[in-house]
Amino acid sequence: SENTYLCQIYNLTLLCMEDYVVEPQSVQFLVQHGFDFNKQYSQGIPYHKGNDKGNESQSQSVRTFFLELIRAKKPLILHNGLIDLVFLYQCFYAHLPDNLGTFTADLSEMFPAGIYDTKYASEFETRFVASYLEYAYKKCKRENCKLKDSSSQHLTIQFCSYPANMSHYIDYRHCSLEEESHNVGGGNKVPVCEKFSAYGWCPKGVKCPQSHNIDLIIDEDDKLWEEKRKKRKHKWKRRKNTEEPAKAFEQESSGKEMELAQNGEEGPPRKQSCYEPAAATELAEITPNCEGRPLEENSMDIEPETEAACAAEKRKETHGPPSHGGTHRAGFDAFMTGYIMAYVWMLKKGKDTDTGAGPWLPDCHNKLYLSGKSVPLQIVKSLFSKSSKAHSQKMKLAWAS
Asked: Where is the segment annotated Disordered (predicted)?
């Protein structure tokens, strides 16, 4: 059906050929999740930053591959993707422009089918209570399972069956919907860490005595939402039977609007307003807080050791408990991001399967989430900005053939 997707996940081990800085904590995090630095330095695909050097279009390089992605004219989907776009542009495309207007103008021409940010979609479209990657993914997965159980329209993911001679290059993980520790503990269950619950990030990291269990966090959020819903319903019934129905209706409407706004249904959700995450919070959120647990049945990875060296700058030990099985991969992040996008698109399109030539989701088209802002960054070419010279040259190179 139109809601069935074939999912293929690829991980490429890259090696920057210029001097770069890594943080010890980031390196430790990658090692804890099974990253093989020996393999990266011995077999990593080399790349350089900035503008092209020589005729890049004729070489088998990451830059050539990135140019093919641009030629494909497909939508680009990210989660909290501003830093990712800066990284991709600088490392595989050209020197970064001097100003933001030029940068967004270039991006709008590089990806004419649109750029979508699932963090923005999670906050402003589905209006989830929290929007960090693993929370949004598991919330979508739960809601999709409910739709499936009720025989309603739902999302279906299919994976490839690869031949035996490719087994050396493929890493399979069995992934369940809920974490194994979800229902363990009973009356002695560990309380949820409110910091992690709100932001998917905790300064105590693995030493935090409270729970970072995403399933438990979603359980509590759903329970709180249901309690508030029942209270609103009870108030409505009680006021409906008062002597002044018109006045009661006006008061209820006003109160309900205020409560909706507080619940994030009239704006981006704010879970615990008493917390102000550090600047590193949103950077760390670019990759999920996986707690080392797989994320989908029959999910697969190409190559177990799979992070670019520069990606180490994004990886913080504050992502949560380290993986014992080494399942934290860029591929799992990509899978979750794609799953969220597919689920949101299914919800928003409803029964209308005629997508036409327009964008997938007009309300999310070319909008990047900005931390702490109620408005997104628009990926458009302004009337007052021009494309960069390096970008214009790259466009000529991309379409020369």
From this structure: 230-275
How far is CA 137 from its chain centroid?
Answer: 8
Exposed / middle / buried, residue 161 (Cβ in 10 Å: 0-12, 13-18, 19+): exposed
- Cβ pair 275, 198 in contact under 8 A: yes
- pTM confidence score: 0.76
Q: Say what the pLDDT of residue 41 is.
A: 95
Q: Is 335 helix (H, G, I), strand (E, B) or coil?
A: helix
Specify the 3-state DSSP secondary structure of 55: coil
**What is residue 285's three-state secondary structure?**
coil
**Rounded to whole angstroms, how far apart are CA atoms 206 and 215?**
18
CA distance 135 to 129: 9
Give me the pLDDT at residue 38, please: 94
Q: Which portions of the chain are predicted below pLDDT 70?
A: 1, 55-58, 173-188, 239-328, 350-357, 401
CA distance 122 to 65: 30
Residues 95, 51: contact at Cβ < 8 Å?
yes
pLDDT at 174: 63
How many separate helices (H) and strands (E) can be counted in the chain? 13, 10
How far, in whole angstroms, is CA 27 from its chain's centroid?
Answer: 22
**Gyration radius from the chain CA atoms:** 23
Helices marked H in 152-213: 194-199
Q: How many CB atoms lie within 10 A of CB 394?
A: 25
Pairwise CA distance, residues 343 & 149, whole Å: 16
Q: What is the pLDDT of residue 121?
A: 94
Other CB atoms within a 10 A radius of the CB of residue 239 amount to 16
Q: Are 300 and 100 in contact (CB under 8 A)?
A: no
